[in-house]
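Person: Please comment on this record:
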Amino acid sequence: MSRAAQSPDRNDDAGTASRDDTPPGWDINPASWGQRLPIVGLALVGVAIASYLTLFQLGILRDVFEPFFGDGSRRILTSSVSRILPIPDAALGAMGYLADAVAGIIGGTRRWRTMPWIVIMFGIAVGPIGAVSILLVVLQPLLFDAFCTLCLVSAAISVVMIGPAMDEVLASLQHLRREREAGRSVWRAFWGRGSTEQATPVTS
């Protein structure tokens, strides 16, 4: 068979593969690289900011960047709250952001159904960091009557990451529900060992 005669079939296969990547009932694929890479990029920025703040809290850096709030950053980063745990709280933030970046890069564009476990872990990593960031922003003026610029930037990054990450978690949870309704093992589907469900286009 000639290469020209094979071309339409290849195009059809590519189109089918693209549709299979998208969860049933969705207009976009929340596991696509276009959706995930911005989250990974934001997480890496978060790693950089939190690592910088950690260096200050460890005494490696003598000063911390603060263009707006005077000694606000210093007061917050050296407060008793920041020393509750054995390690600086900024170090926990750096590890959390790193976990977000790693979880966001693992798997292909069908991972919402082939790797629900990593998607849900991704959501667990992103969600709590965002919640803690919001809490810390609220506590800054209440407890210290001060603000920390880089802490606010880090909190904003966490909040922006939540929406796209939760979209993918929702797609995986919907997949697990369909597996359960079909009488198949949710546990096997959670670990990517369930059916090879194919997404079908939604027709009106």
